[in-house]
Amino acid sequence: MSALLEEATRIAAQFDYPPEQVQRAVKEYIREIDEGLSEEGATLSQIPTFVTSVPNGTEKGLYLAVDLGGTNFRVCSIDLHGNNTFSLTQAKIMIPRELMTSGSSKELFLFLARQIESFLRIHHNEHFEAHLRRMVEAKEEDLFDLGFTFSFPVRQLGINKGTLIRWTKGFDIPDAVGQDVCALLQDAIDELNLPVRVAALVNDTVGTLMARSYTSPGETGTFLGAIFGTGTNGAYVEKLDRVTKMGNIEHSDYDKSTGEMIINAEWGSFDNHLSVLPNTKYDQQLDTDSINPGIQMFEKRVSGMFLGEILRLALLDLHESLGLFKSSTSSNAFVPKSSQIYRQWGIDTSLLSLVEADKTKNFEQIKSALKDHLKIEHASDDDAKSVQIVAHAIAKRAARLGAVAISAILISTGKLQTDDVVDIGVDGSLVEYHPSFSSLLREALREVPEVGAAGDKKIRIGISKDGSGVGAALIALVASKEGTQRPVS
Ligand code: BGC
């Protein structure tokens, strides 16, 4: 093996997360679940969502949904057909960077309301104009019900009420923290006189769970919804009597008849104090240079927004001190100053998927990706292979950490002891595009003794595409007290 490959393997080994560590992390996660269910302000937020039932596929109606959660804002209308299917019309708008960090929350929410207005004009103009004509004596039922998917940590106070705890994923608009984000959106909508009522506030993981439950055939409701995308998080069905902090939370009334409630774990902040999470020098540097050091430490090791940056830091290390892109066989390899390898966030996580997918003998795809993404010409076979070794190790660790959260929730809720299949809906770029992420996650699940090989059959994991939009529509429907629901488990 060449010296370069040896070095790459040594760096990759720093991302090993062996079974004993997975198991230790599962124990800590279970402890943090209990803490989060009993007190406010714990590391794992365990946020009650006030959604106490999941859909069974027979729900019907036309709903609006908007989704603010990463780099894009999505506006959609969803027609639920009532037979496990739906049709969806959507517009995706890139959020101007300046609105994500510097601007005031008012500017951001007005921007969002304007997108809703143009969506209605384009796709539902007749309906929209009719609403406008009746606006003077508008009745409640004339309004479009809208589900608002807002994928940041929110202290939820009711089905359409919740205050922002903190921003994540590169957003930072201080004046929004502590405010009711539904009211912010409703105010902006009212300022433009739109016939829209913000009926439900939804985390994307809750939406994913609901959408999966609506579309998955059979009687079993979905148990867990997880996102492995720009950010990462999960929501699951919890017994109400385990949510002991409920009594201390100020909240509006909700339906207690099912005895269950969907909990938004906000697992991105699991183990912020780093008692069990791995912590390489690359993780440390990423955190120090981030806009929220010490926060979202699990997310910073698992989700799409960060894996590319970890890879960049590791490759830069290999390049600067250990000979990557300058080995003897690639004396022509050249890394120009303008290469994204020198820029913070310069490597997109899609590169990890691309690199993982290359099964060609001479790493043709990796070489051309290095050229396209990083302007690196003439990379050698060893260069390309080194990139693959390191990128694989980073994604593998992320998937194993994902398995920690999932198995801990399954164990803590006793879900594995039931006879039913446990249905899990997932979404996000890593599960959708990374060729090995899901199988690496499965592999780690098997290594948790309480799950074991039996988990392969017992746990059904499926993609819940566009889950957050459809899920938001479904919760808007629940909120407007229509349709049939079934108890959450
Ligand atoms: C947010 C969560 C969200 C997740 C996935 C995290 O950064 O805190 O609320 O569910 O990203 O989008």
TrEMBL record:
Q: Which UniProt keywords apply?
A: ATP-binding, Glycolysis, Kinase, Nucleotide-binding, Transferase
Q: For the Hexokinase C-terminal domain, which residue ranges apply?
A: 224-478
What family does the Swiss-Prot or TrEMBL record give for this protein?
Belongs to the hexokinase family.
Q: Tell me the pathway.
A: Carbohydrate degradation; glycolysis; D-glyceraldehyde 3-phosphate and glycerone phosphate from D-glucose: step 1/4
What positions does the domain Hexokinase N-terminal occupy? 9-214
User: Which species expresses this protein natively?
Assistant: Aspergillus cavernicola
Which Enzyme Commission number(s) are listed?
A: 2.7.1.-
Q: According to its UniProt record, what is one Pfam family this protein matches?
A: Hexokinase_1
Q: Which InterPro entries match?
A: ATPase_NBD (IPR043129), Hexokinase (IPR001312), Hexokinase_BS (IPR019807), Hexokinase_C (IPR022673), Hexokinase_N (IPR022672)
Q: What class of enzyme is it?
A: transferase
The protein's name = Phosphotransferase
